[in-house]
Amino acid sequence: MRLFRIAALSSVLVAFTALAADTGHGIDLAGIDHSVAPGDDFYKYANGAWIKTAVIPPDRAVEGPGAVLIDKTRERVRGLIEDAAKAKPAQGSDAQKVGDFYASYLDEAGIDAKGLAPLGPDMARIAAIKDKTTLSTYLGSTLRADVDALNSTNFYTDHVFGVWITQGFSDPDHNVPYLLQGGLGMPDRDYYIEQTPQMAKLRDQYRAHIVNVLKLARIADADKKAAAIFALETKIAQTHGTREASEDVHKADNPWKRADFTAKAPGMDWNAYFGAAGMGGQNDFIVWHPSAVVGISKLVAGEPVALWKDYLTFRLLDHYSNVLPKAFVDEHFAFYGTDLSGTPKLRDRWKRAIDATNAALGEAVGKMYAAKYFPPSSKTRIQAMVKDLLAAYHARIEKLAWMSPQTKAKALAKLDTLYIGVGYPDSWIDYSAFDVMRGDALGNEERAEMFEYKRNLAKLHGPVDRKEWSMLPQEVNAVNHPLGNALNFPAAILQPPYFDPDADDAYNFGSIGATIGHEISHSFDDQGSQFDAQGRLINWWTPADLAHFQGASAQLARQFDGYRPFPDLAVNGKQTLSENIADVAGLSASHDAYVLSLHGKPAPVMQGLTGDQRFFLAYTQSWREKVRDAALRQQVKTDGHAPAEYRGDTVRNLDAWYPAFTVKPGQKLFLAPKDRVQVW
Predict the structure, then answer these.
(1) What domain range includes position 177?
(2) Are residues 410 and 269 in the same domain?
(3) At residue 673, what are phi and psi to the nearest 5 degrees?
(4) Quick check: is 19 in a domain?
């Protein structure tokens, strides 16, 4: 469960504010809209003046002052990478690989000159497919470890299946491969199935995109083949589980033995598939999406081989479009950037090169970043805040009147064994087996994917590492791993304006404290609460405690069901429940920790604001953003995170918010005490 949603064509879609001009540290007073009553719309009160003047840059789907931090981090990374490229480092060193990967991606002229030649071997492999066995072999050879099921936006990969390798649901001491649905070019099954004008338009645009890609590759009968490819993708989409079902880990807990695939999912030559995937000797699997495995396997047997070859050719071209000639880059952006997200301008090549380098050699870059930009003093202060937040959670659990002693003991055991990584991982990935060749942009991408896949396959033969990171130090985000009972707080989010070492505790607990509290809470939300201290999927609740928890969760889901960003589209409270629980609980615990930090003394008035006012404003200004309609629609349909506006209004569930801003009955956000959701 990530704190922030991730977009396909931009970095983290969350925003923060420029710091106050009067002190340089604190609340953005100029961003407040005093014409709005806090009790009617706290998000607009905290951010309205900023929203009125903010302009979304043409190369982004979202604008917010937090983008300044993302850009700042990217600029820092650019400097580190370009320095590595210029320094003529030793061949085989991380610096050489980082520099050469980046330089190769930047070399548009060289990429254009090569045309589609770098894809020649892959195209030849597709052309050689002649029957179900060779098709299954090819599909197995493309399996990649590019899905984290508990932290995914869409629960699928653009390969027909994805694999996530981590500890087993019921066996926390051994790693197991989780097989997940894939094979789609659009963000979600609903884009193929839902009968609305918006989805119908996107389907037309996507069909046109397929035609354009095939024509750019000079493939004959592009229109006819595109129609057939889209029809096949639609059939694949019809086999997929919904986003809501995908989040239900009990529906995902489907242990299959190797022999079960042939019996339960006939059609695919599974011996050929797993042999080509490097898992011929693997006997134990967990199938997250059985309907997709069964359905796609049936399509392998039932659809013409020639159609599958056309489909795979298109998927190959689309997958590597950003390291193909410029016409492919532009076409890819026209659909995924403009049509899907409403973004009018493609980002600069160097920005995309930074992102690609981070994706391929992220920890090599991250090691450089952490060494230069994350001082020990910041790590020490964050660790102190973590300690305060854990104490606040401990106290909150102890005080829960509705929770039995048995369940409390289990909850406290989870809290006591929680691993919280701050800044950067304890050990770094070894990239020595990854060859990077300057001038071979596409080959570098392919080798990067294969390196990561093999690195993950190796986990099947080694111990479970609960301290492994899934985020990079230079990533502006945070994450909770329920299976590992572990949290990651990368260095890049632990800097102003999210964490400001020169700001007061009210500000920092309202911003980064709520972030830390959010991630801790994921260990106890509707998903995390299903895993014990060792990450085992097991019910550790008494029936009465579970009923109370589920009742409070349902109440929060109903609250979010009532939010409607468009007249024809409402937030799905169940789809966003995990993140909403984490927001409420994290903010509550962070407020407790802030109060504890005062040691019984009154909070000082700063910037004309009380401590509680600064705390709540810091939180809601942390969700400041301006987003294009197309991107917002995509988020509501596919994302487990509610739109930022409604996350900012989470404050309405905390008793302390009401006196801080004199919120009264009759105002739009007012909730009677019995209706304020407090899960933890």
Answers:
(1) 116-323
(2) no
(3) -50, -40
(4) no
Residues 6+ apart with CB under 8 A from 343: 9, 10, 58, 59, 60, 61, 333, 337, 628, 631
pLDDT, tens only, 257-297: 999 999 999 999 999 999 999 999 999 999 999 999 999 99
Question: In this structure, is the dihedral angle defined by the CA atoms of residues 546, 551, 554 and 556, taken in order, positive or negative?
Answer: negative
Per the structure, how many domains does the chain have?
2
Give the count of beta carbons closer than 10 Å to the beta carbon of residue 53.
Answer: 9
Residues in CB range of 292: below 8 A, 6 or more apart: 161, 180, 181, 182, 236, 239, 240, 241
Q: How crowded is the C-beta side of 412, counted as CA atoms within 13 Å?
A: 16
Give the list of residues 6+ apart from residue 549 with CB closer than 8 angstroms, or none: 529, 541, 679
Report the sign of the C-alpha dihedral through residues 77, 78, 81, 82, in that order: negative
d(CA 196, CA 302): 30
CATH number at residue 250: 1.10.1380.10
- pLDDT tens, 98-134? 999 999 999 999 999 999 999 999 999 999 999 999 9
Closest CA to 214 of 69, 65, 318, 106: 318
What letter represents residue 548's amino acid?
H
The gap between the terminal CA atoms of the chain, to the nearest Å, is 18
Confidence (pLDDT) at 526? 73
- In this structure, the number of other CB atoms found within 10 A of the CB of residue 46 comes to 31
pLDDT surpasses 60 at 22: no
How far is it, in rounded angstroms, from Cα 12 to Cα 478? 10
Say whether 304 sits in a helix, a strand or coil.
coil
For residues 94 and 90, give the distance between their C-alpha atoms in angstroms, rounded to a whole number. 9
Phi, psi of 330 (to 5 degrees): -65, -40
**pLDDT over 50 at 4, yes or no:** no
pLDDT at residue 196, rounded to an integer: 93
Instruction: Please check whether residues 395 and 491 belong to one and the same domain.
Output: yes
pLDDT at 322 over 60: yes
Whether residue 475 contacts residue 495, with contact meaning beta carbons closer than 8 Å, is answered with: no
CATH number of the domain bearing residue 572: 3.40.390.10
Cβ of 414: how many Cβ atoms within 10 Å? 23
Q: Under a CB-based contact definition with an 8 Å cutoff, are residues 64 and 624 in contact?
A: yes
